[in-house]
Amino acid sequence: MAITQVAVYAHLSDTDVEALGRELDAIRRDILGRRGARDAAYIRRTIAFQRILDVTARLVIACTRTKRGWLLGTTALAAAKSIENMEIGHNVCHGQWDWMNDPEIHSSTWEWDMAGLSSQWRYSHNYRHHVYTNVLGMDDDIGFGVMRMTRDQRWGPWLLLQPLQNLFLAATFEWGIALHDLYSERDRAAAPAEKAAQTRALIGKIARQIGKDYVLFPALSGRHWRRTLAANLAANTLRNLWAYVVIFCGHFPDGAEKFTPAAVQHETKAEWYLRQMLGTANFQAGPVLAFLSGNLCHQIEHHLFPDLPSNRYAEIARRVRALCDKYDLPYTTGPLIRQYLLTLRTIHKLALPDSFLTATSDDAPETASERKFGAHPALGVGAFPRRGLRTALSLARRFPSSRGANL
Over the chain, what is the mean pLDDT? Predict the structure, then answer.
């Protein structure tokens, strides 16, 4: 099974967990105290840059007569759409800029350039996903309802097509997210009329998106409408692929753990912090890649502090990593390509029946629980003073016979 006793899995005492929570609260207070003009200028510059890039890309697409110009414009448009969705829309909808009291940059008013409604996304993502991150049966983002991402999920014959489902989801990611958000919103709607209203709202948003990208802008291009139509389709697909890679690399590489519903019963704020640190993963990125990913290369920091400005995540990351060293916790990160290949390995492995897999749901690279440490006394919680999960995992690798195969 997935992790039920988070502190036990982390090899930390209750005192250690609460101390970790206080140190993370101190980081949050410090950033809040220093938040101000620098951050406001950052988001306003980002919005201005994105809009200029969007307009420039569309003009290049409409006016160019060469294949190279079309490729340049399409790539720039895909980048503009990615920035709007990830560094602006995603973070604005988290309320990271609500403190500015600017109605244009507020979580309650921002509507992003993608098929889904931001209002429906805020419930499924901000609440269901961020509060219950990687909790089985509570976080709908585990596989987004169409893929098996942990051995705790039952296998079925349809999952043999999971590698193909993965490719389809990647190419159509905005549409998958739109439907995912709708179903999540409809689940909490009590009355049939309310559910119908949610469906109509999404259909209206989809109609506006299709009208803008596939009718209005091609029509404005006159006799070159086919080039514009193809460019918009290609840019949306590239944006979908990039968003998919960033999100999957933040939640499904090895080390991003899953949890049972019992893990969140009577959960304290400090325990919630610890679960976020264990349930998410980063990837290494320089300034440009970080910007294009919406700073979600810092997924751990984002899940710890989802409403703090994204431009602060790099400095927060240094302090969080220091805490991981102090409390002997893993800081799950690696090159982007490595994190994605680990995710692909999970997707392809779990398409197979359990009889083809040699590891267990307690001890596999993508699925683990506190029971993985029970077979050797050196691995048990409390075996060392102030030794945590990092040491336990290192010892477990030295005693593979005590915990079974590791496919």
Answer: 91
